[in-house]
């Protein structure tokens, strides 16, 4: 059974620092991995999707890497801003489970001005 | 990007009544829709997967007679919480996938409070 873990559970940084969020998964047989952002009381906003054949994806200040063999993905957010404060979730789509996602517990990020 | 809407965004109902939540894909055809439940400060828990025109597949531990899911068209899925009780109070989120996108698009969520 696939298990997804996100460490740390919470993170507080001063504005301008780079953020590094970690996601690990137990079964490397994945189809893709998706990073989401969730603001309090809101739904999920997709940030980046990495296919299993890819090593990284970039969008603006965001960069996500994927090391499938070691079961890890890292989301980097450069030059953090207070508006980056949110919960970040990673989710894995296993190869064998259709289109179902397995979510990590999330990392709550606070960027202090 | 693709948009998924949910209605209502918030609902308060009395214990014992039923509540229907709608999930719509606004600008694409959703081959599959998913329903999640999220408790405060916790991650999402998948409740069920539905494909248009067929019965939903429920995750282990989810009561299918309590959480009725209908996926009547490629743009609409509904979740009905029957005989709701206070323990059903939660944040319900739907998502949708299409043939042209490998990920899922998520709706804004519905906050259900049962009094």
Summarize the structure.
The complex is a heterodimer of chains A (113) and B (115). Chain A contains no helices and eleven strands. By secondary structure, chain A is an all-beta fold.
Architecture overview:
The complex is a heterodimer of chains A (113) and B (115). Chain A has 113 residues and is mostly beta strands. Chain A has strands spanning 4-7, 10-14, 19-25, 30-38, 44-51, 56-59, 62-67, 72-77, 86-94, 102-103, 107-112. In chain A, strands 2, 4, 5, 9, 10 and 11 form a six-stranded mixed sheet that branches. In chain A, strand 4 and strand 5 (44-51) form a beta hairpin. In chain B, strands 2, 4, 5, 6, 9, 10 and 11 form a seven-stranded mixed sheet that branches. In chain B, strands 1-3-8-7 form a four-stranded antiparallel sheet, with no helix packed on it. The radius of gyration of chain B is 13 Å and the shape is globular. With 115 residues, chain B is mainly beta. The model of chain B has no long low-confidence stretch (mean pLDDT 93). Chain B contains no helices and eleven strands. At the A-B interface, strand 4 and strand 5 of A face strand 5, strand 9 and strand 10 of B.
How many helix segments of chain B?
Answer: 0
Main sheet specs of chain A = 6 strands, mixed
Q: Please give the count of helices of chain A.
A: 0
How much of the sequence of chain A is in beta strands?
over 45%
* Poorly predicted ranges of chain B: none
Secondary-structure element sequence of chain B? EEEEEEEEEEE
**Overall SS class of chain A:** mainly beta
State the end-to-end distance of chain B.
37 Å
Q: Which two chains have the most extensive interface, and how many residues on each? A: A-B, 22 and 23 residues
- Secondary structure class of chain B reads mainly beta
Mean pLDDT of chain A: 94
How many DSSP E strands of chain A?
A: 11
Show unreliable segments of chain A. none
| Helix share, percent of chain A | under 10%
Strand content of chain B: over 45%
The overall pLDDT average of chain B reads: 93
From the alpha carbons, calculate the radius of gyration of chain B and give it in angstroms.
13 Å
Write down the overall geometry of chain B. globular
Backbone shape of chain A: globular
> What is the share of helical residues of chain B?
under 10%
Instruction: Name the helix and strand elements of chain A from N-terminus to C-terminus, one letter apiece.
Output: EEEEEEEEEEE
């Amino acid at each position: 059974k696939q298990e997804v873990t996100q460490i740390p559970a919470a993170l507080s940084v001063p504005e301008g620092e780079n953020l590094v969020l970690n996601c690990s998964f137990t079964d490397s047989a994945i189809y893709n991995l998706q990073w989401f952002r969730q603001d309090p009381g809101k739904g999920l906003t997709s940030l980046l999707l990495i296919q299993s054949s890819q090593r990284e994806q970039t969008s603006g200040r965001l960069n996500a890497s994927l090391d499938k063999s070691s079961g890890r993905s890292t989301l980097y957010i450069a030059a953090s801003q207070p508006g980056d404060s949110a919960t970040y979730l990673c989710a894995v789509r296993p190869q064998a489970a259709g289109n179902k996602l397995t979510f990590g517990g999330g990392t709550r990020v606070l960027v202090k001005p | 990007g693709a948009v998924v809407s949910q209605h209502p965004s918030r609902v308060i109902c009395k214990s014992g009544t039923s509540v229907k939540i709608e999930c719509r894909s606004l600008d694409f055809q959703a081959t599959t829709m998913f329903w999640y439940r999220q408790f405060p400060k916790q991650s999402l828990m998948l409740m069920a997967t539905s494909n248009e025109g067929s019965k939903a597949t429920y995750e282990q531990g989810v009561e299918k007679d309590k959480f009725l899911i209908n996926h009547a068209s490629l743009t609409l899925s509904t979740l009905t919480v029957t005989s709701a009780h206070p323990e059903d109070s939660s944040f319900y989120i739907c998502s949708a996938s299409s043939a042209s996108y490998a990920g899922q698009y998520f709706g804004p969520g519905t906050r259900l409070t049962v009094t």
